[in-house]
Amino acid sequence: MKTDQKQSDQNHSDGGLEIDTPSGDNSAAHQSTGQSVICLKNIHKSFGNLEVLKGIDLEAGRGDVIALIGSSGSGKSTLLRCANLLEIPQQGEVIFEGDAVKWKGSDWSRSPADFDQVRKLRTNLAMVFQQFNLWAHMTILQNIIEAPITVLGRERQAAEALGHELLEKVGIGDKADAYPSQLSGGQQQRAAIARALAMEPKAMLFDEPTSALDPELEAEVVRVIRALAREGRTMIIVTHDMKLARDVANHLIFLHEGLIAEQGEPDTVFENPKSERLQKFLSATASV
């Protein structure tokens, strides 16, 4: 997906990140290369008798930032979890960098046929969850280096050096030896983002990364996500924050009842919603 993005003209430094000034244009400066990273085709997913996804197509090229918006229950998080096979779709294809996931069985008995292929996909599609999911018994630095050492086989010294670098990047370089319980929610989420970055992923998946935070702590995390977008990182973001969606994404998808009801360049979708359902959704979110 290729969409021209406006360049932010006023920035200042905060904890190693480039962040927007209130008077500047907040759009992330990034552009897709057109090389497909993750492609979902005709994804169907049901839980019992509840059909959550009814045939979804989505493709993120290198450098794309795709925002998924919609009401609770529209299928946003389920779609994201299907992308890295935390949920198994009963129908449809998951393709990572041109390599389609191999399946065995069908419908409810469907499962991936190649464990190594699944491991490669999950390693390269780092996921940041709403509730942080940090290990409480480990320091923040230990949380960050665990997967690079055990999954990627990195040497501890190199992993620790990268961990410190990433903590500085997300603005909590002084929290390496702290435990998750000693951090605010915003700091924990930034630590979770650093942990995801430590895997050197090809793309990042964010599932409502700010919804558990109060407005002040939410702003900390939003600044980090904006900075990542400027770096040209490929991201798919499920979010309730319409400003975040408009600022960082180059493609917006509005899901309604398990289908893509509307999609396009964020400014176009926000300024000229075609469906009555999207108009009502945007009106409701604007009043929150």
Describe the structure in your own words.
The chain has 288 residues and is an alpha/beta fold. It has a single domain, classed as Rossmann fold (3-Layer(aba) Sandwich), CATH 3.40.50.300. It has helices at residues 76-83, 115-124, 140-150, 156-169, 185-197, 215-230, 242-248, 266-271, 276-286, and strands at residues 11-14, 17-20, 36-47, 50-61, 65-69, 91-96, 99-100, 103-104, 111-112, 125-128, 203-207, 235-238, 251-256, 259-264. It has a 6-stranded mixed beta sheet, sandwiched between helices. Strands 4-3-6-7 form a 4-stranded antiparallel beta sheet, covered by helices on one side. Helix 3 (140-150) packs across helix 4 and helix 4 (156-169) crosses helix 5. It is globular, with a radius of gyration of 19 Å. The relative contact order is 0.17. The model is unreliable at 2-30 (pLDDT under 50).
What's this model, at a glance?
The chain has nine helices and 14 strands.
Tag the structure with descriptive keywords.
six-stranded mixed beta sheet, Rossmann fold, 288 residues, alpha/beta
